[in-house]
Here is the input.
Amino acid sequence: MVRDTGTATVVTGLGLVTPAGDDERAFWAGLCAGRSTARRCEELAGLPADFACRADRTDLDEAIGGRAGWRMARFAKMALVAARRAVDDAGLRPDRWDGGRVGVVLGVGVGGVSTLVDNVRRFDGGGAQAVSPLLAPMMMPNAAAGEIAIDLGAHGPSLAPATACASGATALATAHDLLATGRCDLVVAGGAESVLTPLVAAAFGQLGALSTRTGDPAAASRPFAPDRDGFVLGEGAGVLVLERGAHAAARGARLRAVLAGTGAATDAHHPTAPDPGGHGARRAVEAALDAAGWAAHEVGHVNAHGTSTPLNDAMEAELIAGLFPHRPPVTAPKGVLGHTLAAAGAIEAAATVLTLEHGVVPPVANLDAPPADWDIDCVTKQPRRLRVDRAVSHSFGFGGHNVALCFERVRPSGR
Here is the structure.
């Protein structure tokens, strides 16, 4: 074991709904294969970017069971399925825990936008009486956190941080704080997003943020590549169960990783563009390293935000090269998954945990060789086998939000 986990925040469960697969094995195999999941979407036809990375789940209502699914938007359904998977993976029984000591923190950026758009049409055509009475609870971003808490009987703090594309990572950092301060014994935390609608795609397209590589969607998301031209929309959910180390040990839980430190800082530069100097991002990473008690040279792997946009990737590559001159291997899951927005930080945290467990760094999809413009060691073409003890995951969001998470390896053990 790398460190004493008794007083640490530990990861005991993972739950996923992603374009690369839902169960952990399929998700990990998809990342390690390094193949993009992007494809054309019928509902986006006619837009400059008519493709996305969809999570192929048409059975969410069946997976949830009962009648609860009818009151949820798609993002909340994915969040609940992922949360149940994470709790089950952690070996927990909600009917046996002290719900007052269980928190839920679920980051969402937008909420039920497709439901909102549908009801705007209804209102325009039929007036107030045509609007669904469920519109408010379905569109509100905090619906996912609320539905998870209801389903699991979690009566501790229930929060829904919205820091755009850093929301999932912010949720994990917030959960870490709830555990460190003794407010909770365990927290179900992560992020979810589903906005594959023409309105949202058009909005990001008008910003110039999306790739328009319509002739070859599978090659469109290409983090750190010299010819990258924007990100690809994705959807999904990622949920982790975080626990106080002593609580996990008392119930004989399997420890999957230690969340050793978190850091956050703000650019205060521009609503959508990152600070080109990366000062806020660097402060976030340095704060996480300081909280973990690590020197920069002890980091063995970087899971990059890597959106495939010209500005973000240039800023982040310079940050990595400057802060980690020993060149730890870098991956960027958005090449495979697209940009799942608020879910990205949590899904990529799960990927970081799996790298620590398996000793494998997945390749960056659509990147044929390490970038020549920056001295960083991007893993390309094939997964790289490498024991990693300490890893950092980056998440950056519109509004200048920067979050870094430091994860540390533990030796596998039985439950």
Summary: The chain has a mean pLDDT of 95.
